[in-house]
Design a protein that fits this description.
Number of domains: 1
Distance between the termini: 5 Å
Strand content: 35-45%
Order of helices and strands: EEHEEEEE
Number of helices: 1
Shape: globular
Number of strands: 7
Helix content: under 10%
Radius of gyration: 14 Å
Length: about 110
């Protein structure tokens, strides 16, 4: 089951709702073939949910804000879901760059 998150920065007031992280029940039934992860879109100072396929190279995707190629790297990925649990606070804000971006769960998707 996937999470619906809202990103908020206490430093600059950045806010972005309806971000999807994880997978649907149907995707999980395919034995974790694909899932959604969050990346920083530096071109538009926003967060974007990207569909990834396990065992495949990172896809070439366009920024939802401006259409430029989105840079998908370990540095632009928000590492939220970890083996130790969810890390919801202390991320780099796409707006101001400070480590004050946090994610709040606002729902789930199945």
């Amino acid at each position: 089951m996937g999470l619906v998150l809202t990103a908020t920065c206490e430093g600059c007031g950045f806010q972005q709702p309806d971000l999807r992280l994880g997978a649907t029940h149907a995707q999980i039934a395919q034995h974790d073939v694909c899932h959604r992860d969050l990346y920083r879109a530096s071109c538009c100072n926003r967060v974007q949910s990207v569909l990834l396929y396990l065992g495949q190279p990172l896809p070439e995707v366009a920024c939802e804000g401006c259409g430029q190629a989105l840079v998908l790297t370990a540095e632009t990925r928000y590492r939220i879901a970890t083996m130790k649990g969810e890390v919801l606070e202390g991320h780099a804000c796409p707006g101001c760059g400070s480590q004050t971006l946090s994610f709040q769960q606002t729902g789930k998707f199945v």
